[in-house]
């Protein structure tokens, strides 16, 4: 590295520190990877810890798992009791299973300010601890986000370590995920709901890829990993109560060389949850509780129009004329404002490639999401997720006739995602 991780970490903690590190135990020199798990009112944390324990750690390396058991000062009594019980269980688990290759650590964070308490702050506290531990041995190690209701495949650690060795320039990666679609752990309604919701997630991601947009990846909190240096340089995790993964990864992705890891799988839970105001658990609950025939998603026409916008950018670069872009784009962003942004980007770009890169750092995933919502609300009403998914699959040539079920479509999209080859 051009700059030592301890120096990068020192700058980070000087600017973004939230609380002093609590983990003061010695750090093994072969520590390569640290998993961070936020745990709030989780009765089944041990299932996740067992899954991680059973993942093979390559010889010569060691990993740590930091569980941040957390709640705010105004937490309900049942949440406090559950967190206290979970802490006891996690500490006993550590005593029984800690070894030279894997060590489990628990942080009790029961004093969060009510306005800040949430998954974003819990992840930040754990990831900051991970950064501090890597800085002690001056290693640009790997910080991985996981969830307290998720499972992983037995090659999980091996795949992540190998991936970062194979891609030395990558600042981070998105890890392949697949929700369980059947079994005895959840209701039929929940399984059906997660089929719809995961199909929506994969359709949205692949529809953006169809447009030619760069920087298109899944941003799932339980399925992402970053280098310690990238974490520090980009200001660390945010304190959002929901959507923290989307906003965090958007910063990491824009560094360039972001990758996908598709040779292992994270298995998030399809359960109903009210822990966050939006996200998978919330969406599953809404699908189950509403008597709708099908989940609706974004109309494919939105992405056809976005494709034309992206093509204009790629073809014209700094000569892009804001006034000739799609009328929908110009209704979303004023022509003069867009023209000014184009001029500003062009002044700071010394090549066509640099212009495109800078352009889509300004018009990033957050901007695209806002535009999609604008177009949905004003022009293209939502449609059943199966209809939209079929339209994209037909356009891509993946199928030659519409699929009949959401499950069939989801399987196709999983294959697309798992086999994606990045340029």
Structure summarized in a few sentences:
The protein has 423 residues and is α/β, with parallel strands linked by helices. The chain is 49% helix and 14% strand.
From the structure above, extract its key features.
16 helices; alpha/beta; 423 residues; two-stranded antiparallel sheet; 10 strands; 8-stranded mixed sheet; 49% helix
Topology of helices and strands:
Blueprint: H1 5-16, E1 31-39, H2 45-53, E2 62-72, H3 77-97, E3 102-112, H4 119-136, E4 142-145, E5 151-152, H5 156-166, E6 172-177, H6 188-211, E7 224-227, H7 228-233, H8 244-253, E8 259-267, H9 280-289, E9 296-297, H10 300-316, H11 327-332, H12 335-347, H13 352-362, H14 365-378, E10 383-384, H15 385-396, H16 406-418
Parallel strand pairs: 1-2, 1-4, 2-3, 6-8
Antiparallel strand pairs: 4-7, 5-8, 6-7, 9-10
Helix pairs in contact: 1-4, 2-3, 6-9, 6-10, 6-15, 6-16, 12-13
Strand-residue fraction?
5-15%
Largest sheet: 8 strands, mixed
Strand ordering within the main sheet: 3-2-1-4-7-6-8-5
Mean pLDDT: 92
Structural class: alpha/beta
Taken from the alpha-carbon principal axes, the silhouette is: globular
What order do the SSEs take from the amino end to the carboxyl end, as H and E? HEHEHEHEEHEHEHHEHEHHHHHEHH
Proportion in helices: 40-55%
Number of strands: 10
Please report the distance between the alpha carbons of the first and last residues.
Answer: 25 Å
As a whole number of angstroms, the C-alpha radius of gyration is: 22 Å
Give the uncertain stretches in residue-range form: none
How many individual helices? Answer: 16
């Amino acid at each position: 590295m051009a700059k030592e991780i301890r120096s990068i970490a020192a700058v980070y903690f000087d600017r973004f520190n939230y609380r002093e590190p609590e983990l003061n135990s010695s750090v093994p020199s072969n520590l390569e990877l640290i998993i961070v798990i936020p745990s709030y009112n989780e009765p089944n944390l041990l299932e996740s810890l067992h899954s991680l324990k059973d993942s093979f750690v390559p010889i010569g390396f060691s990993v740590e798992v930091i569980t941040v058991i957390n709640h705010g000062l105004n937490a309900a009594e049942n949440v406090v009791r559950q967190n206290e019980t979970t802490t006891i269980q996690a500490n006993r688990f550590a005593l029984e299973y800690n070894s030279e290759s894997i060590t489990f650590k628990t942080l009790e964070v029961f004093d969060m300010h009510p306005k800040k308490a949430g998954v974003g702050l819990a992840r930040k506290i754990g990831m900051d601890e991970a950064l501090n531990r890597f800085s002690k041995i001056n290693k640009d190690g790997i910080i991985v986000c996981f969830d307290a209701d998720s499972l992983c495949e037995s090659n999980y650690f091996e795949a992540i370590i190998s991936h970062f060795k194979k891609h030395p320039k990558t600042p981070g990666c998105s890890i392949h995920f697949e929700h369980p679609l059947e079994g005895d752990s959840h209701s039929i309604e929940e399984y059906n709901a997660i089929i719809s919701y995961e199909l929506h997630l994969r359709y949205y991601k692949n529809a953006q890829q169809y447009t030619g947009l760069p920087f298109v990846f899944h941003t799932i909190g339980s399925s992402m990993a970053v280098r310690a240096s990238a974490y520090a340089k980009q200001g660390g995790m945010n304190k959002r109560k929901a959507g923290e993964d989307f906003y965090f990864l958007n910063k990491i992705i824009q560094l360039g060389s972001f990758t996908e890891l598709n040779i292992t799988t994270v298995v998030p839970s399809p359960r109903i949850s009210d822990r966050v105001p939006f996200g998978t658990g919330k969406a599953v609950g809404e699908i189950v509780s509403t008597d709708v025939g099908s989940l609706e998603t974004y109309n494919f026409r939105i992405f056809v129009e976005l494709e034309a916008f992206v093509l204009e950018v790629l073809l014209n670069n700094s000569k892009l004329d804001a006034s000739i872009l799609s009328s929908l784009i110009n209704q979303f962003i004023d022509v003069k404002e867009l023209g000014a942004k184009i001029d500003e980007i062009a002044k700071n770009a010394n090549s066509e490639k640099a212009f495109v890169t800078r352009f889509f750092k300004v018009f990033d995933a957050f901007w695209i999401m806002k535009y999609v919502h604008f177009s949905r609300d004003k022009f293209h009403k939502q449609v059943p997720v199966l209809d939209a998914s079929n339209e994209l699959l037909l356009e891509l040539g993946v199928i030659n006739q519409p699929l009949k079920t959401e499950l069939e479509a989801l399987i196709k999209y999983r294959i697309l995602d798992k086999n994606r080859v990045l340029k």
